[in-house]
Amino acid sequence: MTAVTWDAPDGDHPARRAVRAAMDAAAAGRKQEWLALFAPDAVIEDPVGPSMLDPEGKGHRGPDGIERFWDENIARVRKYHFRVSDSFANGPACANVVTITATLDGGTTLTIDCLTVYTVDDDGLITSFRAHWEPDRVMATLTSP
Do you know which SUPFAM superfamilies this protein is assigned to (predicted)? Predict the structure, then answer.
């Protein structure tokens, strides 16, 4: 199985290109490539609002915050599979309906059904990444090998 299954409209759009590049880099564990996709003043809200990943719900901001987000969250996943079932690109943004299956060390898996919204600047760099998902629903999907 490939790391990204794109079962959605895939017309060329700067924000959609950024989405695909971010998913590919995350799935392959290419940290520096992933970090280079973000503008210096970018913000990540994953999930949007207060959560165990962002207790204050203010997002992960700037290069240091975004790198910390990678180290504390993305790097902890051994294997990703992204399935994009729909995609809406317009203006500087792309919204996607995504199911993410994450496999952790030891083989535990979890599934995140979410809506992601990426916004890019004129250079195609990500200025905002917002993921809408419910932590309780994700925790209910935990499976052990």
Answer: NTF2-like
**Cβ within 8 Å of residue 70, ≥6 positions away:** 31, 34, 35
In total, how many domains does the chain have? 1
Cβ atoms of residues 96 and 112 within 8 Å: no
CA distance 84 to 72: 24
34-67 per-position pLDDT tens digit? 999 999 999 999 999 999 999 999 999 999 999 9
126: domain range? 4-141
Measured CA to CA, the distance from residue 11 to residue 104 in angstroms comes to 33
For the stretch 85-96, pLDDT in tens is 999 999 999 999
Among 6, 65, 12, 13, residue whose Cα is nearest residue 35? 65
